[in-house]
Amino acid sequence: MADATHAAADGGIATILASADGRDFLLRNSADKVKISSIEASTVALYFSASWCPPCRRFTPKLVEAYNELVSQGKSFEVVFVSGDSDQEAFNAYFAKMPWLAVPFSDSEALAKLNERYKVMGIPHLVILDAKSGEIYTEDGVELVHEYGTEAYPFTTERINELEEQEKAAKDNQTIHSLFGTPTRDYLITNKGDKVPISDLEGKYVGLCFVVNGYGPVVQFTSVLAKMYEKLKAVGEKFEVVAVSLDGDEESFNESFADMPWLAIPQGDKMCEKLARYFELSGLPMLVLIGPDGKTLNDDIADIIDEHGPDAWEGFPFSAEKLEILAEKAKAKAESQTLESLLVTGDLDFVLGKDGAKVPVSELVGKTVLLYFSAKWCPPCRAFLPKLVNEYNKIKEKHNDFEIVFISSDREQSSYDEFFSDMPWLALPLGDERKQQLSKIFKITGIPSLVAIGPDGKTVTKDAKTPLVAHGADAFPFTDEKLQELEKKIDEMAKGWPEKLKHDLHEHELVLTRCTTYGCDGCDEMGDSWSYRCKECDFDLHPKCALEEKGDVEMGEENAEAAPAGYVCEGDVCRKV
């Protein structure tokens, strides 16, 4: 290899990789032995990995690609696999995919010593060394390969500092060509495969949109963006969108790009990963706005479009003045809100009754309506439903001007039907387009959620769940005035409760404490206002549980379903990631 430097026999990798019993060789996946002293690379990477580790399996192809590219360029670089596999068969199968060397799997003592020497706490882990001296260039090799690829070679601190300076300079001198072009590509593509010169974007506003096929939040966002895009085109605005795909294969890219009316960087182009790092991508959806001069105007306008929907085009190009106009329009829209403006879209002017009959939204006008965002796959939703049904029935006994509308996040009709069968109220059909719009209007990020709409169609509260759990049916109609009245009543009751008590469920003394929302460790339901608390142990009991000596109430998990992609369930809520 070019600029080869032999490892010293008494130091560097010769010492690091040899074994105490005299082994002085490494293996290729062909089982050939390679003398450690014959390794000519000046830079050597120790790759701690295992076939059972999903992140390792995802990273290995990327490292193989970088390795092959560096070797083809004549760079003085070698990789040594340090296996964490549990048996020889797994090692052989995994090593067969690697073009580099490995410490023999049979030398368990050497593998253990390398893990100990480099304090390996997790895998994949890539330690990059000066072969001659054994000096550690970096222990963050995985991150550097992800971020810079082969450009990071030889992975020294000096080289990484140089790359960071280059990125800073690139941002200072950013142009539309430096963003989207490469030395070998000066074009973008349409979903029909046509090539469009990057120069066609000069003088235009450009939205740089990161996309992944099949990821719900991105699919929803790009459908809204497409409507805004077409509207801006129709009114003559100089606006274009460029998709930056993070898909790993051509088929996935083509599937998602087929429905997009804008341009894209070709799939697999390294510029896609470079842009993800350049704009510090941390979540999706993300839409970067580039100005006519090629400079970045806004690092992410996805939230603006998400909030205002297709009408966001009226705020283009999203300057402070334009955003103020959007905010004023949103405020006026909220003030003119009616139940029908929320629940009627085109021909969709109904909700479903228990028998599947269509109930006109007009029959709900003048009532207090709770919009119940929930799903059968969500454990907190299943746990909350019996409580909601009980309080619903109590409210209906006294108030005919009350209703609940179930808005489902289920994926299958059978799950929807089964869950809805336990509800005595109304619902939107599964997959109804109104669900997406309502979720945006009320910024629903977790379920179960209850939004209260008053008789005049205005929003009473975006969180009716908390007062309903705390006060039950007495919380109706969920107005601030009603809740303040209940708080005063509870505060008066609290004056008669003991300040401290002991309970069988906890070893320490519990102290009556004024608090906000908490989870009761007795019945597992939510509470607020007052708790019998052990601050040291973060233990809470509802006053009713503490004073009535209630024990644990166990919630069944029959017919449990897995949460869909994009959600994580914690405590009493399932939230969007």
UniProtKB/TrEMBL annotation:
Give the enzyme's EC designation: 1.8.1.8
> What superkingdom heads the lineage?
Eukaryota
Pinpoint the Thioredoxin domain residues.
1-165, 328-495
Keywords, in A-Z order: NAD, Oxidoreductase, Repeat
Q: Catalytic activity annotated for this protein?
A: [protein]-dithiol + NAD(+) = [protein]-disulfide + NADH + H(+); [protein]-dithiol + NADP(+) = [protein]-disulfide + NADPH + H(+)
Enzyme class at the top of the EC tree: oxidoreductase
- Matching InterPro entries: C1-like_sf, DC1, Nucleoredoxin-like, Thioredoxin-like_fold, Thioredoxin-like_sf, Thioredoxin_CS, Thioredoxin_domain, TryX_NRX_thioredoxin_dom
Q: Which Pfam families match?
A: C1_2, Thioredoxin_8
Q: Which one of the record's GO molecular function terms can you name? A: thioredoxin-disulfide reductase (NADPH) activity
* Family, similarity comment: Belongs to the nucleoredoxin family.
Q: What is this protein called?
A: protein-disulfide reductase
Taxonomic placement: Eukaryota, Viridiplantae, Streptophyta, Embryophyta, Tracheophyta
